[in-house]
């Protein structure tokens, strides 16, 4: 068996097993939501297997044998509830669109991956060292590396970054049995299909017509930056978009039905966000703020507002707050700077990067014409959003996210990254994903029917 096929089968097995488990845990979810969620859980399971089996010659294959036995057991106990043909036909059409649109990027991924230097140094370096050493190796940045005993740790400027993406690459290469960049990056093959399936599942639950779901799936696929993150495999941003959209889907399902299983899944996928990338803490903050604003009891909401007013007042008066969060890093909020766990500390102060931001949104080719038409689409959909189920949460989340984006790139030292458009574009990816889902909800059955 070829190494590529070995790796693909080893990746597909935990994803299929996770999908079966999710269908039993939440059988009323749209099948596309279950598959997208199963891909995420399967990747997390693969990372866990890679970590536990590192240093063992047969540990990975023994773990996969256990997963295979568990999968057969689940199939024997009831299998995968296939449901009607309609959702499967839509998913097949979406995957065909993905294949047609992404074929050039997939060729790069399979034959000659364009490995961006920052993605390599942040994620792949650790996986390659672990694979080559055959054991767990600690990484450290300058002070710890210099102070350590020679050979006990390896240097990485991104040693503080989350481990999940590196472990996924380690799993893929270990399953293939040989280190080649295209084999280690095979998991990126699943990210974009899972993203459009997650979008389809969210819209299907709102009874959006299949033709609209296919059109919005194509919009997502046609964004140049989404394609670039497949051809330039190694970045974690598409995976972060997937986890965020799946988390929001399960929050909407929980808020609609108050199911404990949906709450468990919503919390699990929300917790995955900072395990993929430290930016996840920002999206968790926006999600928590949106949930509090919309669903908190009035008294608790009043307390939150009072705490916010007191906090802003103290910041203006020159007071600050700092807390060490162990392995997650430091949380700091003061009149001098702000730091979220695991992220760079940014100093506060207005910096006029508006020209660079306008160029990023409207002039560069990363987003086609999306930001040109987004204001008009929002105005057209505004009346329907008031009637469509689930739109309030996405609207408020998007508002908080947009506010955080503007604050970060206009009022902190992160403005310098807006000049290169790399950091600003990556931070826009989750917001664009949520906006497309939100626009799709304007076509929900409850939104288009007369009251």
Question: What descriptors fit this protein?
Answer:
6 strands, 21 helices, 2 domains, mainly alpha, 451 residues, two-stranded parallel ribbon, globular, 4-stranded antiparallel β-sheet, 4% strand
Largest sheet: 4 strands, antiparallel
Rg, Å, rounded: 22 Å
- The first-to-last residue Cα distance is 60 Å
Beta fraction: under 5%
What do the pLDDT scores average to?
85
Provide the helix percentage: over 70%
Which stretches are poorly predicted, pLDDT < 50 over at least 5 residues?
none
Using DSSP, what is the number of strands? 6
Principal-axis shape: globular
Q: What strand order characterises the main sheet? A: 3-4-5-6
Class inferred from helices and paired strands:
mainly alpha
N to C succession of SSEs: HHHHHEHEHHHHHHHHHEEEEHHHHHH
How many helices in DSSP terms?
21
Total count of domains: 2
Write a concise synopsis of the structure shown.
The protein has helices at residues 3-25, 31-53, 59-77, 85-111, 117-133, 142-147, 164-176, 181-184, 188-205, 210-222, 224-231, 237-257, 260-276, 280-295, 298-316, 354-363, 370-385, 391-411, 415-418, 422-441, 445-448, and strands at residues 138-140, 153-155, 321-324, 330-333, 337-339, 346-347. It has 451 residues and is mainly alpha-helical.
């Amino acid at each position: 068996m070829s190494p590529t096929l070995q790796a693909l089968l080893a990746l597909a097995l935990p994803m299929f097993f996770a999908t079966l488990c999710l269908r039993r845990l939440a059988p009323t979810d749209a099948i596309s939501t279950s598959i997208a969620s199963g891909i995420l859980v399967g990747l997390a399971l693969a990372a866990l297997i890679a970590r536990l089996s590192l240093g063992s010659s047969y540990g990975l294959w023994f773990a996969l044998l256990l997963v295979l036995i568990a999968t057969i057991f689940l199939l024997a106990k009831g299998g995968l509830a296939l449901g009607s043909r309609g959702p499967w036909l839509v998913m097949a059409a979406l995957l065909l669109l993905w294949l047609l649109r992404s074929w050039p990027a997939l060729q790069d991924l399979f034959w000659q991956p364009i490995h961006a230097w920052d993605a390599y140094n942040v994620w792949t370096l650790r996986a390659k060292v672990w694979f080559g050493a055959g054991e767990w190796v600690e990484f450290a940045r300058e002070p710890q590396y210099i102070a350590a005993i020679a050979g006990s740790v390896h240097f990485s400027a991104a040693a503080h970054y989350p481990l999940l993406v590196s472990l996924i690459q380690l799993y893929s290469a270990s399953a293939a049995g040989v280190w080649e960049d295209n084999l280690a990056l095979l998991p990126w093959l699943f990210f974009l299909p899972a993203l459009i399936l997650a979008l389809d599942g969210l819209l299907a639950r709102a009874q959006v017509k299949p033709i609209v779901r296919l059109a919005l799936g194509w919009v997502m696929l046609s964004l140049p930056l989404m394609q670039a993150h497949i051809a330039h495999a190694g970045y974690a941003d598409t995976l972060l978009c997937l986890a965020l959209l799946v988390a929001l889907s399960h929050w909407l399902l929980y808020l609609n039905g108050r199911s404990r299983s949906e709450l468990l899944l919503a919390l699990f996928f929300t917790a995955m966000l900072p395990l993929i990338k430290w930016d996840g803490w920002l999206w968790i903050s926006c999600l928590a703020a949106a949930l509090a604003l919309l669903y908190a009891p009035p008294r608790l909401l009043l307390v939150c507002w009072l705490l916010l007013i007191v906090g802003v007042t103290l910041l203006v008066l020159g007071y600050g707050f700092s807390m060490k969060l162990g392995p997650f890093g430091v949380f700091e909020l003061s009149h001098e700077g702000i730091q979220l766990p695991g992220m760079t500390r940014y100093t506060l102060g207005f910096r006029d990067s508006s020209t660079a931001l306008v160029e990023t949104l409207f002039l560069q080719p990363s987003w086609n014409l999306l930001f040109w038409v987004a204001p008009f689409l929002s105005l057209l959909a505004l009346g329907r959003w008031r009637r469509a189920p689930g739109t309030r949460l996405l609207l408020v989340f998007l508002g908080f996210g947009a506010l955080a984006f503007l604050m970060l790139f206009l009022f902190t030292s992160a403005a310098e990254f807006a000049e290169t458009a790399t950091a600003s574009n990556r931070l826009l990816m989750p917001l664009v994903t949520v906006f497309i889902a939100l626009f799709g909800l304007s076509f929900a059955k409850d939104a288009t029917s007369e009251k």
